[in-house]
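TASK: fixed-backbone design
INPUT:
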């Protein structure tokens, strides 16, 4: 880029080459930035009385600004439109840029305003603050810039674009999350655990609006060190936006296909002069139709958070978010996947299995707090707590029970009812970490304890005129009689689980180019699931499932070797322990799943961390893996439940390849390839509903020169086919085979900066209008089709 009239070199491109006399004083900083082609915003009082040490040499834009601001107490924060905003530095925060250390917010700590598709640090694997390259596991970060570019507003859509993640829909806004062939059943909120319960359908975390989050970190592979009992799939950490040192904000409005609209507001900054108190308020509302007939969505979110500097070394954070979801015509299950002949059905993507009057209202409150204190010798202490309370009221009829006649459409029964559910979750994490000297070297240690409790109370009511009635699925037009409330509870379906654990991770540095991470966790786990019918006639179907484990030890080990300043090799190991609620053909609960997770790979960090790449090979060995027992059911269950069998010697092997960040100035990319296959001890592939291969690509490029107000982007998601085979007592002698063949979906984006504060973004999703099933429900044998081609236009004003 050209540095302006004061530069004797008159150079252009990605780098500055400035003489020392340039940018000597900070007061004319905006004028100098403008002449250099850089948009820089700040209040006049921020630079009063300040001077710069000047700059000589060849630097990137970010590094040049950082060096110019050394010692000023200011930091140039990069914005999504390519410009910069001067922000004051929080006391004690550290920024490393090349060989220069200043105070500020490093790439990776907070992605908002960084303009990047990657981050420089994460603690989701071990609680140690490590860069992606230093972490000996596969980890992906979806940044705020990536969310804004793709206009990602839901967890479901974001995860569908995340490397290595498969989203399996079994209903509208009801989905399972898988990685490496296994379900992810924990979501962290700022590092505090919460549990997912797909069966109860009361899952407010997965319905959360992304407007309140700074980034989403996804760790693939076993995560037992921090999460305790769980699958070797991974964990998802939703990191909330926090208050900023300087005043900032935006308002936005979006309009899209099918009368869909959305509005947002986000305001942040200090509350009063020299009070040490900062606040942030975020709100959003979205509603409109969908690609599915008679299905309309309506959701709102309000979020407030405060930060207070209790002392120079102590930071207190407290926040609350409130979210509502009030859809109509929502189907908690999909369309029948098979005809009564066993042939797979073919519906239009707009067809709906739900009655028009269906409702599924979810209301959730989420309160959180944290206390961070810096201790002597660079140690720190952090306490974090989270309380989630959610309610769900539902009534509905779903044409998803049975196998329709291919010609007449008869033979489908309405499945549904009405009722309510309440969920409470509490979580707590405390840890202390810091460096220590041993054998003349500097090492790091983290010690922590976390605890979580989940309660869900599900109370379906008796409703006349819905459950069990047969319809013609071709002719019913989503019209059917609504429920008649009898005032009598049908059953209590209650779940409860609690787990706690003490964990430790030690990072040894025997050499500058070698890091050895050793960790261990000791956990306790309790689980209870009760299904109690109020009718004596159905009492034979009552069941209570209980599990309890204590003193479960989960070891962890990782080695990272720096080949040079850019490339590192790593190896990691962790054990697997997962209690299971599935039952076999005799009604007995399967034993806990146990195994080992191995991973080795190569990670690279280019351009000072602005571009990261990773290649990983992994193998997962497991015993007692639950697998559907074809044609078998659990005795005494109503509705009839499929039985499972325990598979020993199961092996999952796979490859992860990822590239994320800035290829060159203005060109961001997120690209990945993932391969995963699970086989039993005989070498036969199992769990084929998880795609064996996935490719995900998204890139954006800000045009140079006179076109630099325009950013163009696009991407494609491709996955290999999925399938399953089953038999059912309803169609004796027929083998069902459900299948979704390989498919690719393309998306496009364009953004134009009208001026420094106003921008317009246009997104076109599913460019070629591809029709495909988003998942295969192996329990009810149903499927749901993905959104067809749609557009969304956004206007955003920043201040």
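OUTPUT:
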């Amino acid at each position: 880029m050209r540095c302006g009239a004061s530069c004797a070199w008159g150079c252009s491109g990605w780098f500055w080459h400035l003489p020392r006399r340039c940018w000597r004083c900070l007061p004319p900083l905006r004028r100098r930035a403008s002449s250099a082609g850089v948009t820089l915003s700040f209040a006049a009082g921020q630079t009063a009385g300040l001077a710069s040490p000047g700059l000589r040499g060849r630097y990137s834009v970010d590094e040049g600004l950082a060096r110019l601001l050394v010692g000023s107490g200011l930091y140039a924060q990069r914005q999504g439109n390519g410009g910069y905003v001067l922000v004051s530095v929080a006391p004690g925060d550290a920024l490393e840029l090349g060989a220069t250390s200043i105070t500020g917010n490093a790439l990776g700590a907070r992605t908002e305003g960084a303009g990047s598709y990657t981050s420089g640090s994460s603690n989701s694997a071990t609680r140690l603050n490590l860069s992606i390259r230093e972490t000996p596991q596969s980890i992906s970060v979806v940044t705020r810039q990536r969310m804004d570019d793709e206009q990602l507003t839901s967890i479901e859509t974001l995860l569908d674009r995340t490397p290595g993640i498969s989203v399996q829909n079994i209903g509208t806004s009801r989905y399972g999350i898988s990685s490496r062939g296994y379900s992810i059943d924990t979501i962290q909120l700022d590092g505090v655990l919460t549990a997912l319960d797909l069966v109860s359908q009361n899952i407010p975390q997965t319905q959360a609006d992304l407007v309140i989050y700074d980034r989403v970190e996804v760790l693939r592979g076993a995560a037992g060190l921090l999460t305790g009992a769980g699958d070797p799939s991974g964990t998802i950490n939703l990191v909330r936006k926090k208050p900023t040192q300087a005043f900032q904000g935006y308002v936005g409005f979006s309009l899209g296909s099918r009368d869909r609209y959305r509005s947002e507001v986000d305001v942040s900054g200090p509350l009063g002069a020299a009070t040490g108190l900062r606040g942030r308020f975020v709100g959003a509302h979205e509603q409109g139709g969908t690609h599915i007939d008679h299905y309309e969505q309506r959701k709102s979110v309000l979020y407030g958070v405060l930060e207070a500097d209790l002392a120079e070394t102590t930071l207190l954070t407290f926040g609350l978010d409130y979210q509502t979801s009030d859809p109509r015509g929502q189907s908690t299950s999909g369309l029948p996947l098979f005809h009564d002949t066993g042939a797979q059905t073919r519906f239009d993507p707009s067809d709906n299995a739900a009655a028009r009057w269906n409702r599924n209202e979810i209301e959730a409150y989420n309160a959180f707090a944290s206390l961070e204190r810096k201790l002597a010798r660079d140690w720190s202490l952090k306490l974090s707590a989270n309380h989630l309370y959610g309610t769900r009221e539902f009534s509905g009829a779903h044409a998803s029970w049975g196998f329709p006649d291919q010609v007449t459409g008869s033979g489908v029964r309405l499945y549904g009812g009405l009722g309510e559910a309440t969920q409470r979750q509490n979580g707590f994490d405390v840890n202390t970490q810091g460096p220590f000297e041993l054998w003349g070297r500097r090492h790091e240690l983290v010690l922590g304890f976390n605890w979580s409790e989940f309660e869900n109370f599900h109370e379906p009511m008796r409703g006349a005129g819905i459950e069990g009635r047969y319809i013609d699925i071709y002719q019913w037009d989503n019209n059917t009689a609504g429920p008649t409330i009898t005032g009598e509870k049908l059953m209590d379906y209650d779940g409860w689980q609690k787990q706690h654990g003490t964990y430790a991770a030690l990072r040894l540095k025997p050499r500058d180019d070698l890091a050895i991470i050793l960790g261990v966790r000791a956990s306790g786990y309790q689980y209870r699931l009760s299904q109690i019918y109020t009718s004596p006639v159905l009492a034979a179907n009552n069941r209570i499932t209980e599990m309890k484990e204590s003193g479960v030890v989960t070891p962890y080990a990782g080695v990272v070797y720096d080949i040079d300043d850019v490339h590192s090799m790593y190896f990691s190991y962790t054990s697997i322990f997962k209690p299971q609620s599935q039952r076999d053909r005799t009604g007995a609960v399967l034993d806990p799943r146990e195994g080992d997770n191995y991973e080795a790979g190569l990670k690279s960090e280019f351009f000072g961390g602005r571009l990261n790449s990773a290649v990983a090979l992994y193998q997962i060995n497991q015993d007692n893996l639950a697998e559907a027992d074809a044609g078998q059911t659990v005795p005494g269950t109503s509705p009839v439940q499929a039985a499972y069998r325990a598979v020993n010697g199961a092996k999952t092997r796979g490859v992860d390849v990822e590239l994320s960040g800035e290829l060159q100035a203005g060109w961001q990319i997120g690209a990945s390839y993932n391969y995963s296959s699970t086989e039993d001890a005989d070498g036969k592939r199992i769990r084929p509903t998880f795609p064996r291969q996935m490719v995900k690509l998204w890139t954006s490029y800000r045009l140079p020169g006179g076109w630099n107000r325009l950013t163009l982007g696009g991407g494609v998601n491709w996955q290999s086919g999925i399938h399953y085979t089953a038999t059912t007592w309803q169609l004796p002698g027929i083998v069902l085979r459900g299948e979704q063949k390989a498919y690719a979906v393309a998306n496009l984006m364009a953004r134009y900066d009208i001026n420094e504060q106003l921008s317009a973004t246009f997104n076109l999703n599913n460019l070629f209008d591809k029709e495909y099933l988003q998942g295969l429900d192996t329990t009810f044998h149903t499927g749901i089709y993905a959104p067809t081609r749609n557009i969304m236009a956004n206007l955003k004003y920043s201040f």
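COMMENT: The chain has three domains: 14-81, 121-237, 264-282+302-324+332-798.
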